[in-house]
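Internal QA ticket QA-208
Title: Verify multi-chain structure generation after dependency bump
Assignee: T.L.

Test input:
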Amino acid sequence: MKKPMNTFTMAATLAGLALSMSLSGAAAAAAADAKEQFFPVLSYRTGAYAPNGIPFANGYVDYLKYVNTKGGINGVKVTYEECETGYATDKGVECYERLKGKNATVFQSLSTGITFALTEKVPNDKIPLITAGYGRSESADGMVFKWNFPLTGTYWDAADVLIQHLGKKEGGLDKLAGKKVALVYHDSPFGKEPIPLLQERSKLNGFELILLPVAPPGVEQKSTWLQVRQSRPDYVLLWGWGVMNSTAIKEAVATGYPREKMYGVWWAGAEPDVKDVGDAAKGYNALALQHGAEPDAKIVKDILRDVHGKGQGTGAPEEVGQVLYMRGLSAAMLAVEGVKRAQERFGKGKVMTGEQARWGYENLALDQKKLDALGFAGVMRPISTSCADHRGAGWARVHTWSGKKWEFTSDWYEASEMIIKPMVKAAADKYAAEKKIERRSPQDCQS
Amino acid sequence: MFYRENGQFKTSYAADQQIFPVMQDRLAVLGLLVLAFVAVPALAPEYLFRAILIPFLILSLAALGLNVLVGYCGQISLGTGGLMAVGAYGAYNILVRIDGVPLIVALLMGGVFAALVGVLFGIPSLRIRGLYLAVATLAAQFFCDWSFLRIKWLTNYSSSGSVSVAGLNVFGWSVDTPAEKYLLCLLLVCLFALITKNLIRGHIGREWMAIRDMDVAAAVIGIRPVYAKLSAFAVSSFIIGVAGALWGFVFLGSWEPAAFNIDRSFQLLFMIIIGGLGSVMGSFFGAAFIVVLPILLDQGAVALGFDTAIASHLTLMIFGSLIVFFLIAEPHGLARLWAVGKEKLRLWPFPH
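Actual output:
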């Protein structure tokens, strides 16, 4: 006698709930897009990678808000919508499918796994994919990867710069012969990306490469660091993200591996990675993808004044200027500048489609004057992309944690084209053969 | 009033033994099939295909496979994700290494490889059961995870460990658009659901259910546990392997071993528990619940104004509490609720 009432009312309430939610979702989505450039923001504010995903997303969104305070992109207002991916490929794909229908300008997934999945989809949907400092290294070859833009550098560039730095520390690349370099990496496409280049370099410069994978998300590293203690490498390269980074440094402290000999990739060198460890992480080095922590940059001051000052800031004001915040800021800046460049060709003050924005990203020409005018003096170096080169720049530095903040401890390095360019071409050709796509013709570059 | 079988007399054994003996059921299923095959491809927006229908269909196929093993044969298995991975990578290797192989053959071969691996990891079930078997199948999951990360031959020496497949082509019909991918998945799901239902209704299914209910008694009356349990593992793993191949080929396009990790195994187990163990319909209900509800909750929470992190946490909380609620209100799952509903409908409007 109790059951029929329960099941019926339960079913009715559930149906009503589902219906109301889908209706409200539809209503929200039907907002007018009159003169608005829509930027989807794929972010992760939950999960094992959230400590690093949150400042990046805050920087990205803050820059979009800042652009609106300056009147938008030549008068076109910037709109955005965040979607939580949790660093998971299937959630990232679902977010992509949901947001692409709103005239999305460009996608930045901040996850190599999601990038691999989206690389398959963007050519059909004609939306560019920026993977600034991550993604597939071979996507730098724009003649095969028309819609991918690994702006400012790929993981092969990162690995190359690290080896150059280690060579400099030893007093010459030839002195690396016979040394042991261990790569502690996140066992995923992200972590495996540098391996081909490191193996190439190991053959060239004669050092021994030890590969130590860490099962994602990387909270369990005791056995890895015991192996490090056993093999006693001269240097350890850390290719981690999220919780893996701080765990690695803690394990290094526990096994007594000197942090001065650890070098992280540019995604393993930010405040969330070392804050928990504090003083014990002193001396830990990492790559800085052009910028490090830039609390004195003009853009930081502008954002604190125009966005946070007006109560519009995403996240805490203390975060503004931190490494990953600046990374998100630069990624958003590149996204907006590409649209601006596209407007120069397709109509100033008009809303750009994904295809038009793609042309903009392919013809970026940001010299130091333009960057300084945007407030990025000292934060970014000039970047200029072309049809064949979707990377645009390959500069990086090394910064070290002093116990309180990140300080630059090296000069500028540029990744060695001599080694990387043929590898990129070979990998891109392999991808093209697998996917049965032709290289683009020079005429296609004009479109 | 509407759902009565008055006047529906069967005059042949075939009519008596059909899957839907009640005419109203047959009409409803026919209507659903017409809706699914004709109306949905014509009317549904692309987002519905890509984000909801295709994952729902593929995961319901995998849930169907798992239900055969857990629901009908009573052998708990936590290795589903690993078996999906075997199916996906098996199909990928066939496609890449042998020229000119039709897509369907590659998908089915993926199922065959998964069946072989499933039988191998099902051998412990002859000696252990319950929690211990769960742990043994968990070992299968981790072993598959490990092998696809470490054995480079299986990923065709891809440097990143990620593999992808190019255009799908079924006997000349090129499967590009979301609607076509949906139709391919729908065809395979309908086919496998029919085959599974008939297997279950036959003597093999009865053997499985006897093993589930009391395996010692089943052995006493002459059902050989070796054949029954291993055939359950084989059939279940075959279906799961085909689902895994579809997941990689049709839904993701490009995947890494993490797409088939332990979370996927748990997700499928929750699907059949919520949907209803030992029921073909239950696999579909469970898949719908677990695939569609989080998306609706997420979009609903964001539409109500919560920021994405809070919406994600809210989704998890509401989803978890709904699982607990359903298991308390109806431990036999949504399929049982549906069956009870139909029973009530027979008496409606005279509920006595």
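Spot checks passed. Chain A has 15 helices and 14 strands.
Status: verified.
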